[in-house]
Write a structure and sequence with these properties.
Layout (H helix, E strand, L loop, with lengths): L3 H5 L5 E4 L4 E4 L1 E7 L5 E6 L6 E5 L26 E2 L13 E4 L5 H13 L4 E2 L16 H5 L2 E6 L1 H4 L2 H12 L4 E5 L13 E4 L4 H13 L1
Parallel strand pairs: 7-8, 7-9, 9-10, 10-11
Antiparallel strand pairs: 1-2, 3-4, 4-5, 6-8
Length: 216
């Protein structure tokens, strides 16, 4: 992991602070990427401490892998990892569901995402990434745009850092969380109030119940 401070310490970056209404020299600059895959730098105002942002590539971006553009909304060329219900999802992400799943349960998650798409429920199923991406907003853009979270509940997902970050993000913003229970286990305290759908038995009845839960 490169030390971005080494790239940026001799490269003062100015940005406009909305709160101070003035151009300042950014503190703790960090190279980041927007949801469209454009480079930028995020940091803090030395006067008021607000987060400031400036578009543009710096030397620090050279050591980072450019992420593919993120598209939660359906379109002509959906981004990898995006499952949608065709025209049902076009033009709006208001019904998109983010799926948090452990890598060991990816096959089940893909099947579920495809079935939900055919029943009019667009979903975002994240792809495994070899390295973390520093997004401009601090979290994956799909987390911000999706309005529901579906957790494929297994022991593996409890140890998955990305999945835990996802339901922490949704809980903070009071957005609905639904659990697809695949194994008998204790539910974490932070998920106890989430609606549960039992997938340990017949798949089809559970799928119909899940569609109802995601549509509420």
């Amino acid at each position: 992991m490169p030390d971005y401070a080494d790239f940026l310490e001799d490269e003062p970056i100015e940005a406009y602070c909305v709160r101070c209404r003035d151009t300042i020299e950014m503190e703790e600059p960090q190279p980041v990427w927007t949801r469209k895959g454009s480079p930028g730098t995020r940091g803090f105002c030395p006067v008021c401490g607000s987060t400031v942002f400036r578009m543009g590539r710096t030397d620090a971006h050279r050591e980072m892998k450019k992420p593919a553009p993120v598209r939660v909304v359906d379109g002509p060329t959906p981004a990898p990892g995006h499952h949608s219900a065709g025209r049902h999802a076009a033009g709006s992400a208001s019904h998109a569901t983010y799926i948090a799943v452990a890598s060991a349960d990816a096959v089940f998650a893909h099947r579920l995402a495809d079935d939900l798409a055919h029943m009019g429920i667009p979903t975002w199923l994240p792809r495994a990434q070899g390295e973390a991406v520093a997004w401009a907003g601090g979290v994956h853009p799909a987390l911000e745009e999706c309005t529901r979270l579906l957790v494929i509940l297994t022991p593996g997902v409890l140890a998955d850092e990305a999945a835990r970050a996802a339901w922490g993000f949704f809980r903070e913003r009071r957005k609905p969380i639904v659990l697809a229970v695949r194994e008998g286990m204790d539910v974490p305290d932070e998920l106890r109030r989430a609606r549960r759908v039992d997938f340990r038995g017949d798949y089809r009845p559970a799928l119909r119940e899940l569609v109802q839960a995601l549509g509420e």
